[in-house]
Design a protein that fits this description.
264 residues, four-stranded antiparallel β-sheet, globular
């Protein structure tokens, strides 16, 4: 027991100064109101519904390191788009609210390869791919979130249901954290703007609050020890890059929400 405690203490001591769960290390602007987000690690894919400035209901691809725009195209589901998940190999899974289904699409164009319905709940939350870039191959599952009823489900890519759990909160676009083995879910709560980590069985094992500049956390995606979370509802129209280390060890506590860099 003493050895385990010592190893954990050393791990925390070796962490970079200021590295803590929920720390905003960068952010960049989006051209319109952002919602769902997915990431390949090198690139981010952000659905922007729009509010006052056209074009509306577009998916934008950004360079994850610089925030520069690579390309954009109209979402195949228009204003009914509710989720994005990246499947390693160049595919986006895009969720549709009504009728509720998910589609495997070309990440560069949005062209649909195939789809299947989500019958367990209305797909008002979003989509994430339960995969691991260090272990390429078939996805373990597709994760969907939404209500009514308020559920998180996992399906095979064929559409077969693998499991689900009920929640008491309304969640937006989820993110699969392959290093911690948890599902990050932004909650529909303008204050205190929380993001929760659930196991695939439904237990909440970690959480953090978004900074006050975030009106409402909407989309979420994970890669390389970082969460990307969009600000939904009110300006600023940005995506936050958030430090997300191991949640299974103690983290050095510091103030939450400090921005280290800003890409424009």
């Amino acid at each position: 027991m003493k050895l385990i405690w010592l190893l954990c203490a050393l791990a925390v001591a070796a962490a970079p100064a200021g590295a803590y769960l929920g720390e905003v290390v960068a952010s960049f602007n989006t051209p319109n109101l952002p919602g769902a987000v997915a990431t390949s690690g090198d690139y981010l894919y952000v659905f922007c519904a729009g509010r006052f400035i056209p074009p509306f209901n577009y998916i934008y691809q950004f360079n994850a390191a610089t925030g520069s725009r690579v390309r954009s195209y109209a979402s195949p589901f228009g204003s009914y788009t509710t989720g994005l998940g990246y499947e390693y190999g160049g595919y986006l899974w895009i969720g549709r609210y009504s009728p509720s289904y998910v589609a495997r699409c070309d990440a560069s164009t949005g062209s649909i390869y195939y789809s299947f319905p989500i019958s367990q709940h209305s797909l008002g939350g979003g989509v994430a791919c339960q995969g691991d870039p260090t272990r390429p191959g078939t996805l373990a599952s597709l994760i969907t979130a939404g209500g009514s009823p308020s559920l998180v489900t996992r399906h095979r890519t064929s559409g077969t249901l693998l499991g689900s759990f009920a929640t008491t909160r309304r969640y937006f676009d989820p993110a699969w954290d392959y290093r911690n083995g948890v599902i990050w879910l932004p909650a529909y709560e303008p204050s205190p703007r929380p993001v929760y980590a659930h196991t695939t069985a439904g237990s909440v094992v970690a959480s953090f609050r978004m900074p006050t500049s975030c009106y409402l956390p909407g989309g979420a995606a994970y890669a390389n020890n970082y969460l990307y979370v969009t600000n939904t509802g009110n300006p600023p129209y940005i995506v936050y890059k958030i430090h997300c280390p191991s949640i299974w060890q103690r983290e050095a506590a510091t103030s939450i929400g400090r921005v280290k860099a800003l890409f424009r």
